[in-house]
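Components:
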Amino acid sequence: MFRPIFWIAQKELRQLFRDRALLRVVLVVPMIQLFVFGYAANTDLKNVRVSVLDEDRSEGSRRLVDAYYASDVFVPGPAAGAPRDLDRFLLEGKTDAALWIPRGFSEDLARGDPASVAVTVDGVNGNVAGRVMGYATAIVRQESLARLEKVALAHPGLAARTHRVDADSRFYYNPELRSRHYMVPGIVVLIITIVSAMLTGIAVVREREIGTLEQLMVSPLTSGQIIAGKTIPIVVLAFLELAFATTVAVLWFRLPFEGSVLLLAGCAMAYLLVTLGVGLLVSTVSATQQQAMFTLWFFLVFGILMSGFFYPIENMAREVQWLTYLNPFRYMMSMVRGIFLQGATLPDVASDLVPLAAIGVVTFTGAVLRFQKRFT
Amino acid sequence: MTDTVIPILVEGLRKRYGEINALDGLSLRVEHGEIVGLIGPDGAGKTTAMGTVCGLVRPDDGFARVMGLDCREEGQRVKEHIGYMPQRFSLYSDLTVAENLRFFADLFEVSSSERRERQERLMAFSGLAPFLGRRAGALSGGMKQKLALCCTLIHTPDVLILDEPTTGVDVVSRSEFWTILRDLAGEGMALLVSTPYMEEAALFDRLILMHRGRAVASGTPGEVRSRFGQRLLEVTGPGIAKARERIVGLRWPGVDVHRFGDRLHVVHDLEEEDAGIREALARVDVRVGPVEPTIEDTFISLVTHSPEAAG
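Structure:
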């Protein structure tokens, strides 16, 4: 019963280690992805150029400008001589943001009147623009409050008017809001996804392509044994890659790993049910390895984009958000991030693990049934 | 092997794929020590028939039995008795000759002592022994075919089913291959072999001419040829192209001309036509004489004269 599974598994591994091209895809490419993405997938705001037009030329306006450059987000852009320069710089891409401090800024502040400045941001990359605007206005607000406070101290009678609520925000789990902490766990998921789904799809379709699947079908093997023999080595490989990627994430990228390794492995097993199932399903509808690759790629791109890997799910349209509940990536991403950064425990991840396991069981069972129907 | 059991028995097989009748009431049997040929053009239903016997195809009607076991109901047990070599070469080209043999032996749960003994014999008669360490993909076409055969024989099947094993194999390898098949039959194995080559027909003990999913003739090669119910003249010589034009130019309804390489076969029904044809070719540079019909003549004759063949 189990021996034939071993024979097939042994043959699969033998073939894998002889196929140099496939071996590269499976072992080397994920490593490169991990390192390149680890560095490149960096959405921290840095080196945003800001051009300043200071028409007030007062101590107050200079302090505001200094406050901009003091943060590590902003660096000086080209200097503007007139308001239209700011527009031109933005249009020509010479700067990312523009700050216009009109005449009378300091006087307004000194009187305690509302003072206004103009902040313009290049909106081509909407994702970045929103955050630049947030930073830029925050700096203005901070500066004006500091000024007001001074005014209030000098004129105690004004104190009542400047009474304010100060919201002090703090970010938990990722205090520096480092995007790497957010991205690397996602890449770990990506790597085991690609390896397990692709290899499963290829392992079956390749045998169909060369005609050996027919040979296996006329042997006393059951289709269950064929599936097990083909998928077990892939599961082992996926776990090895998971272990490696996690090690690199912690030792090289200095990610915290707060949760339990065992829980991570358990979640990965539920997730692999999905990816193996999808790989198998695709193999039953594909005649060639290319077809299988492209079909898988189609699902992968969808799954990744709608998993919260790059864009938070909360920002998606409500209908699309509902759709993501069908997306296995979504649950896995959220669990892996939780285990890495929050030290999530089984009860914490249950709300993700249960639907993921359900999708896994349905997908894998469906794939096995379809495989049996197609090949026996 | 008990000789009371018929190794392969097929009765009234029918299988439709959409509009196409792949099998239309096919019956056949293969005894121990016999090589039976399925002969017919592409699309005649040979592969479907073999697939049904191997349990790969579920027939709509009729049954196939191997060693007395129903191929549909007892598919798993049937597989232990069958060695099947599909039409397309299908071994793992990235594994070595020895690894391929080992893998198929393992799949069929052949014990290691039995495997060694069997492998030695197979290597001896196939001549593959010097290539045990070579990757299957690096073998020549004929060698690959022999390795495929060895892999299907490693579990000592009672029944061997070969789908066009000699297609695309060179002439020398082909004759070696046939020697091997003959040896296997000599050991009592039952062989069902398909081929599109009519000239291989004489090598079979019995053959079945297939057309549109049914047998149009069956029996020993001699019996099948005797089904040729027409008259036949063979035309040879440098002027055969011209001769063909002349005969076609006669526009006699019952006369057909077929070209086989360097000769023409003129098929007709009536004795009087014989003289007419000779007269038409009198001044063409060819020799004309009566000849025994080949399997191919028989096939064409049977197919063109069967009532269903009109379309």
